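Task: sequence design from structure.
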């Protein structure tokens, strides 16, 4: 329970107003209102079941860095494989498979409820950057 104390000075005689109320429901609503999640940037987990008022672990990822670290991504970059070509499409499918596998491995081992693209969540306190862990899992 929280107590609010307000002091008002009227002319030369102070008046004290003390109000007491349970603000736990208000705090929960405010906590939810402050958390912003861009569902289009969720890379792992179920955004619909995410409780912003909870304390579940959430991670962010820089997908481009992870893709570039995959063996297929390194080939694309090293050889300058043209986007849209058959070889590019084959390599990007391989990179995606590797990305998803590493993402899932890190999410499960670290108990992340969500992994979101960097910048896809704000206002939530229990967020870690998992990019380097995901790259290590490749």
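Answer:
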């Amino acid at each position: 329970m929280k107590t609010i104390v307000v002091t008002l000075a009227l002319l030369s005689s102070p008046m004290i107003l003390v109000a007491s109320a349970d603000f736990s429901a208000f705090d929960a609503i405010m906590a939810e209102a402050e958390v912003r999640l861009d569902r289009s940037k969720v890379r792992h987990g179920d955004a619909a079941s995410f409780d912003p008022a909870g304390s579940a672990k959430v991670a962010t990822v820089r997908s481009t860095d992870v893709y570039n670290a995959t063996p297929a991504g390194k080939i694309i970059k090293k050889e300058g494989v043209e986007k849209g070509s058959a070889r590019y499409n084959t390599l990007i499918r391989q990179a995606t498979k590797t990305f998803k596998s590493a993402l899932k491995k890190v999410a499960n081992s670290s108990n992340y409820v969500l992994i979101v693209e960097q910048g896809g969540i704000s206002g939530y306190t229990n967020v870690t950057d998992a990019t380097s862990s995901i790259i290590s899992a490749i």
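Residues 86-110 form the longest helix (25 residues).
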